Amino acid sequence: MEMTKPLAQPADEGMSKEKADYEKCKRIADAPNILAVLDEELRGCGLVGERANANLIFLSSYTRHFDKPVSLVIQGSSGAGKSNLLNTALRFVDPRSYVALGGTSEKALIFTNRDLRHKHLVIQEMASLGGEDGMRYLRQILSEGSITYEMTVIDREVPGTEIMQTDGPMGLMMTTTETNLNHEDQTRLLPITLDESPEQIKAVLLAKAVAVAGGVTARAEFEEWHVFDQFISESVPKIIIPFAENMVCGIGAHSHRMKRDVDQLFSLIQAHALIHQMHRERDGNGALLCDYEDYAVVRELMEPVVSRGLEQTVPTDIREVLAAVKAISEKNSRKVVSQNEIVEFFGSDRHSASIDKSNVSRRVAKALKTPYLLNFCKDKGKSDQLVLAHPLPEDNQILPTVEDVKAPIIEMQA
Questions:
Q1: 47 and 155 Cβ atoms separated by less than 8 Å
Q2: Contacts of 383 (CB under 8 A, 6+ apart)
Q3: Could you write out the DSSP letters of every residue in 77-94?
Q4: 16, burial (CB in 10 Å: exposed 0-12, middle 13-18, buried 19+)
Q5: Does the reported pTM lie above 0.90?
Q6: In 3D, which of 121, 249, 276 has the Cα closest to residue 189?
Q7: Same domain, 32 and 157
Q8: What whole-number distance in Å separates Cα of residue 38 and Cα of residue 40?
């Protein structure tokens, strides 16, 4: 397919910057599936598994060009690889597109001199945000697009007030060890959970062994990816999703959260079309038209994320804990199970996945925050009395399939 992005014509004998950038990154820009190219290079720079999560981070970075950038939080236990995943994915993005901080004070966003418009703020740990006030100001700029703060000024002849303002729009990317976020944060941030299965841990150990044993590892061309980002950013067209109405009609109205999730869904679809613009059509006014491939890719990335956010699916690690409680309960002919018994169950020969005590403790803590597991013991220091509560639901599909979107849909699903 021929290039559809109208490149600026050089004013003289020299080549325009946009066209020059294209020549430097056309291997990526002309690729029909850029995320597949990214996958190969992620593997080359040592990322084990987590391809879908890395793709979601990479794609989210391009939503900074829109009025509602996607924000996300990576959840996982200490040492699980949250920062490695985030940092690795961001190596393929122009460093000027985000502001990375190790931490901030509560009111740093109010007084900052940084230009955060159409950028992502990257925070390595949620706990370093300076307390609840820090998160409150972050929520404001994520939702409203700006922070307005009036402060008292007394060190002048006539005391008065001064208004400080930080403008967006901006997005947020951060990591946390918290298993459950504040409700106000949950509705603003896409939750990305790491694979902490024994199989994933084994794969990481094996990759480390291959590296020190002299295994050959391909190198990613980060500079080429940065030029590609700059090329895309030089001229961002209006982007239309022609099938948006059919898509929304196929989404169940399960929760008010969906009103924010659908904005993130739209932004990701537009971002996917934006980076694949060489293979997308335009209307008579030059607007880029998303196609069904954009929705198909984003749907595959977003379905598990949206489902978890709406609690329509139960993650595998929690299902395994609940299955263990059920098996132990049935074997011992009693409903109450202790956490130590679950540790023994996962360490036994009859269970394929050996999970250590700290991981079991984390999984049990997550399960106790769902409606499916209760702890009758409320006294700290005493043995848990874990009991199954409600039966597990079947995993429900939240986002319509591509076939559903293509079909005429008239009424919103209940």
A1: no
A2: 338, 339, 340, 377
A3: -TTSSHHHHHHHHHTTS-
A4: middle
A5: no
A6: 121
A7: yes
A8: 5
Whether 305 is covered by a domain: the verdict is no
167 phi/psi in degrees, rounded to 5: -100, 150
Name 386's bridge partners: 337, 375
Q: Alpha carbon of 405 to those of 136, 242, 247: distances in Å?
A: 37, 11, 5
Extract the tokens encoding 43: 């593997």
Partner residues linked to 120 by β-bridges:
98, 171
Question: Using 50, 70 and 90 to split pLDDT, how confident is the model at 204?
Answer: confident
Q: Are 315 and 307 in contact (CB under 8 A)?
A: no
Strands 190-193, 239-240: pairing is unpaired
pLDDT in tens, 57-112: 999 999 999 999 999 999 888 888 899 999 999 999 999 999 998 878 888 888 88
How far apart, in whole angstroms, are the C-alpha atoms of residue 56 and residue 90?
A: 11
The label of the residue with tokens 């001064």 reads: 162
Domain of 121 in residue numbering reads as: 17-236
CATH of the domain at 132: 3.40.50.300
Beta bridge partners of 175: 74
How far apart are alpha carbons 174 and 169 in whole angstroms? 17
CATH number of the domain where residue 357 is located:
1.10.10.2220
Element (H, E) at 343: helix 339-346
Same domain, 64 and 191: yes
Cα separation, 244 vs 410, in Å, equals 13
